[in-house]
Each structure stands twice: as C-alpha cells, then as structure tokens.
Amino acid sequence: MRLKNFIIIASSFFLLGVSQPNPEELTSTCVACHGVDGNSQVGLWPSLAGQNFNYLKKQLLLIQSGQRSVPEMTGLMEKFSEKELEGIASFYSNKKTNIGRASKELVDLGSKLYYVGNLEKGIPACYACHSPKGRGNYPAGYPLLSGQKTDYISKTLKDYRSGVRQYSDQSAIMVSISYKLDDKEIAALASFINGLH
C-alpha cells in the first residue's frame, strides 16, 4: 500500500513538473527583438529585462487581445495561455537591466524634466510615477524606464503625443503629458532615461 501511495504521489509531482512552462522555450521567439537576456540590442524595441511584472503581464495580455496594436507581434501571442504569459513576464522581470549613457548636451534638460517637470507647460515630473531612479511603480503597474533605448523612448513619447499609442487609463495619462512635450524635450528625456540609474 505504501509503495502504491508513493508511486501516485511521485507521479503527480512528475506531472506538475511537466506542466510548468519552460521560460527559455516560451521566450525563444522574443529574443530576436528583445535580446537573449531581455536587453534589446535594437534601438526601437523595448528592453524587457527588469521590467515591472504587473506592467509586463498587462502589456502582453493587451497585445494578445488586440487592444494594444503591435504589428510585429501580431500572431506571435495567440499560442500562449495566460499562465505562459505570466511565465514570460516573470522570466524577464527577474533579469538585470543594462543601463546606457545620456548625452552630455541633453542631460541638464532631461534631468530637469524628469525630476521637476515644466510647470509653465503643465508637465509633471516623470519620477512621480516612474520613481527617482526610473524603476517604475510596481503596485500601480507603472513601467521601469531606466535603461530603455533612446530611440524607443523617443518613438513611444511621440506615439503618445500623436495619440497613436492609446489603449488604457495609464496611456491616457501619457497622451496628455506627451502632447505638451516638444521634440527637443522628448530627445532630452529619451537620452536621460537611457542613462538613468
């Protein structure tokens, strides 16, 4: 009887182990754009390493459902269950973020906008939602910004500004802020965020 119980229990542990998603397999397609360790080598693609789990999971679900349009990912997300998307989010959220370098010419303006904002234009300080070191706000689901590529941040802010990127309450906040930013301010913020740590 004990042997029979042991076999049943051991088999159930084996089955549990088999059903757990393998992060390396789940992310095998992701590496082409987001890098093996989640640090993108391509300026226009976001780095996922160290990203807030809640934010990353929400974005994956929005992309999968079609609420957030990312043409490059169309079709890639269909095969994943919610549990697998959580596995992907967990995998990348536990990776180390690589930090870039801010342009010396833009660092003063970028720093001022990030930490103080621009009261005359009604632009709040970025750190209020994204933290002083750009680590984001985990409970609120605000994303990590630190180390994101300059081109990616610049494109994202311009997409918010033009209304192209608008799919949630959080994106509505960014649309209203980005609308007030001019190209020089976007360039300065993007550069500063790339080197923020």
From TrEMBL:
The keyword Transport applies. Residues 17-96, 105-197 form the Cytochrome c domain. Keywords: Electron transport, Heme, Iron, Metal-binding, Periplasm, Transport. GO terms for cellular component: periplasmic space. InterPro entries: Cyt_c-like_dom, Cyt_c-like_dom_sf, Cytochrome_c4-like, Cytochrome_c_Oxidase_Subunit. GO terms for molecular function: electron transfer activity; heme binding; iron ion binding. It is found in: Periplasm. This is Cytochrome c domain-containing protein. It comes from marine metagenome.
